[in-house]
Amino acid sequence: MTDLEQDNFQPWFYSEIVREHFFHPQNFLDHDLELDKYNAMGRAGSPACGDELRVWLWVDENDERIKKFYWRTFGCASAIAATSMTSVIVLEGEGMTLAEARAITPQQIMESLGGLPTRKIHCSVLSDKALRDAVNDYYRRTKQFDKIEPEATRIVDPIARVTDKDIEEAILSGAKSVEEVAQKTGVRLNDPRVGQEAAQLVKFYLEKYQG
Questions:
Q1: How is the chain split into domains, by residue range?
Q2: What residue stretches are annotated with the NIF system FeS cluster assembly NifU N-terminal domain (predicted)?
Q3: How much is the pTM?
Q4: Is 76 a catalytic residue?
Q5: CATH level 2 (architecture), domain 3-145
Q6: For residue range 103-153, what is the model confidence (pLDDT) as tens digits?
Q7: Tell me: domain 150-211, CATH 1.10.10.1100, correct?
Q8: Would residue 123 show up in a list of annotated catalytic residues for this protein?
């Protein structure tokens, strides 16, 4: 029985949008893509923990808009739905630019899905991480090294200069709440955007390291 089928006994567990993207995922591949079909590839997660995600992009070199977005994951229902929704968001209209795609947040993905259960929030973080990894890969392939932003140094709070790595290290050093992370890092919870992203990262790392 799949993760989603088990949760059918709790009809409030997932939104109808999540169910639709799980049963009818958009831009999904059941195999790795041929080399000539993409010019950027990213990944996130690990098969060891059950959630591994790969994405393949075709980027128009003239305007750096993403024209194709394919993906494959071995993750749960939330990971499948979140990545399917991410691909739809990225390809809408003329396709996002690489800069726009890099700015997608877990909160944006979850809002588009109509929400996710708290214990599944880390699955939405996975798809935006893989997308950023693919953006970096495109810049690497096209030798635009100055545009590469290593994931470990992605800034969450530009004023306090707190990165996602700082938040991860705070969790590893014993923090068990957003407030404790704020005490250790100085991240500003009174800023709505910063506070939301920090909260999502805290939940992700707590799930990852403490279960």
A1: 3-145, 150-211
A2: 14-143
A3: 0.69
A4: no
A5: Alpha-Beta Complex (3.90)
A6: 998 878 988 998 877 666 666 668 888 999 999 999 999 999 999 887 766
A7: yes
A8: yes
